[in-house]
User: What shape does this take?
Amino acid sequence: ENISIQWNMNHSFHNLAAVKVTANLFGTIVWLDQKDTSHGTVQYDAARKSVEWTIPAFAATEGVASASFTIKLDQQNPTQTALMSETVLTATDDTLKRSIIRRAPELKIP
Assistant: This one.
């Protein structure tokens, strides 16, 4: 079963630098290398089963950024309830020169 995951970031306050969104995938999955972004790049580390979306700079005037990727749940473990760990966004506010950290809850298996 192929599963598409989309991350959206809405921002309109200050410009951001070094934006990074990361999460780990659980279970027996296949990375299909089907990915798309409005900004930056998405990469998959098979050894760590982690997905990383990086945006070097994001202007407040751009408002919305999105990234999507598709995986295949190759074998489902009957006791597995989560497909992906919590998602963590880190960035630097260019105006205040402060770090920003935001978290989203883990993604359950559909």
Q: What stands out?
A: The two ends are 10 Å apart (CA to CA). Residues 5 and 68 are 5 Å apart (CA to CA).
